[in-house]
Fold each of these.
Amino acid sequence: MAMINGRGRESRARIRAVDVLGSAVLFVLSVVAASIPPHQHQLLVRWPTVALAAVGCSALLWRRRRPFGVLAVTIGCGAAIQLLGVRDSPLVTSPVLVSVYNVAVRTNRRTAWSMAVVSAAVLAGAAVAGAPASWLDPGKAAVLAWTALPAAVGDGVRSRRAYVAAVVERAEHAERTREQEAERRVAAERVRIARDLHDIVAHHIALINAQAGVAVHLVDRRPEQILTALQDIRDTSRSALDELRVTVGLLRQSDDPVAPRHPMPGLAQVPALLASFERAGLAVSQALRGTAEPLEPAVDLAAYRIVQESLTNVRKHAGADNARLFLHYQGERLTITVEDDGSAGPRRPRPGAGHGLIGMRERAATIGGRLYAGPRAEGGFTVTAELPLRASCPSPQEDRRNDHAHSRTACR
C-alpha cells in the first residue's frame, strides 16, 4: 500500500511539473506574440499585456479542478488583451484555446461547443471594440476558427477515451462472466453425473436385491435353479459396472488413459431391460401405438432412463408383480406411460425417496418435455412423460432451474 501511495504521489508531482512547464511556455509565446505590433518587425513590450498573460497562463494550473472557472478567467484576460489593440493571433489567446480544449475533454459535446461559441463571440467582440473593423475581417474569422478547433479536438479525445473505457469494461465483464460460466458448468456437470449415478445404482441394486431374494427362496424349493439366479445377479452387476465405468470415465482428465466407450442406452435396449425386471420377479407388458420414429441421442437416453427409473420405483416401492409400459408416437412427440396396480396395503415410501422423480422431471425438462407422476384412481401409481422427438431448448426460467448440461448441448 505504501508503494502504491508513493507511486501516486510521484505521478501527481510529474503531472504538476508538466503543467507548470506548459504554462510557462504558453506565457512566453503569448507575450512574444502580443509584443509584435501589426506590420512591424520589432518587439514592443506592453506591461499590461504581460500581466494579463501571466494571470491567464497561471490559471491553467487549476484547469483539472476548476475547468469552467479557469475558462472564465482566460476569456476575461484574452478579451482584455484584445481591447488593448493587440494583433489577432492564436498565440495571444492560447490560454483560452487550452481552456476550451480542457472543457471539451471533461464534459459533453453540447457543453463543449456552447463554451467554444461563447469564447469566440467574446474574443471577436473584444477585438472589434479594440480595433474597429468589420466582423468579416479575416482576423476576426480566424478567431472563430481557432476557437472551434480545440473544441473539436477535445470532443474527439473525449469520445476516444470513452470508447477505450467501454472496451476495457466489456473485456473485464467478459472475463468475469467466463469464470462464472465455467463454475456454473462444473456445478451442472456434477448434478448430471449425480443423476446418472442415481439412476444406474438405484436400478441395478434394486434388481440385484430382488434376484438375491429369489435365490434365497429357491434354496429350499428349487435348488437346481439357484445357478440361474446367481447368473442373473452376475449379469446385472456386470451391467452396473459397465455403466458406472462409462459415467466415471467422464471425470478423467485429457491426459488420462482413454476410458472404454460403450454406446449410451436408448429405447432399443428396453426389451433387455424388461427381461432383467422379469428375472427379478416383475412382469412388464409393453404396448406400442403409432409408428416408432428415430430419436435424437439426448431424447433416446432420457426416454430410457425414465422407463428404467419408473420400473425401478415400481419394484422398490409398489410391491407389485405386474406393470405396464405404453409408448405412443404421435406427430413430433413421444408419450411414455408406466403404471402399476400397487399392492394391497398402503404404499410407504422409504426414507430418502423422491430423488428419482426429481431426476426424471429434470431429464424431461432439459429436452423440452414434461413429466407427470401421481397415484391412479383405480389404485397404484402412474408416470407419464411427454417428450419431443427432437430435443428443444427449454425456457430461460426452466434452464436456470434445471441447470443441466444436456439442455445446452442439445440446443446448440
Note: The first strand starts at residue 283 and ends at 289.
Amino acid sequence: MFIVDRSAALIRPKQAFLDWLNALPGNDIELSLDDIRSDCTVILVPEASEPEDGISYIDDVAEKLFEMELASWVEDEALWPKKRNLKLFWEWFDVEIHLGVMDSVSEDIHNTPSDRGYH
C-alpha cells in the first residue's frame, strides 16, 4: 500500500439534479435517486487535514465540476441550467470529503486529460 498525497471527494447528485434530469425533453427513462447516486464521480483533491479544506477546494472548482457532471448526463449544453452558480451546485450535489487516500497498485498512475478539457 502506498500513501497518496491527495484527499478524495465523492460527488453525489441530489433530488434537485434528478428532478432536472427527469424533466428533460425527450427523456423516456424515469430515473430514481438511487440510480444516479449509485456510481458517482470521485475526484482527487489537494491533501486536506480537515474536511473543510476539501470543501473549500470544491468551492473553487465547483463551476468545472458542475459542467462535468452535467456533461456526463447530457451532451447538449443548451439543455443545461443557464444560471449555474455555487449556490445551485450545493443544492444539486452532496460532497463527501475523504482525507486519507491509499493506493494499492504499485504501477504508476497515468493522468489523461478528460475529453472536455477539465483537469
Note: Residues 22 and 29 are 8 Å apart (CA to CA).
Amino acid sequence: MIQIEFIEPSGTTRAVFGRPGWSLMETALRSGVEGIAAECGGICGCATCHVLIDPAWMDRVGEPNDMEDPLLDLVEREPNSRLSCQVKLRAELEGLVVRVADHQI
C-alpha cells in the first residue's frame, strides 16, 4: 500500500492508503476524502477530480497527458493542477501530498 496525504477543501489533512495502479481519484473515493466529485467515473471526461500536487512532488508525478490538458483549462488551473483520475499510484509516490481543489466544476 502507498500512503498519500490529501488536504481537503476544509483544510483537514487525511492520510490514506492506496494500491499501486489505483488512481489518486479512486484512492480518494475509497477513503472518503471530501471534495472530489468524479462525475465521469475516472475516464478523463470531466474535471470534477481536480487536485493540486504539492510542488515538491511535481517532477515525480509528471505533467498532464494530452487528454487531461484541455480539461484542466475548464478549472481554475494552477501550474501544479492535475486530474486525480490520471495520476496512477506507484512506489515513487509514497508520501505524496495532494490538495483537493476548492471548487470542482
Note: The chain is about 15% helix and 25% strand.
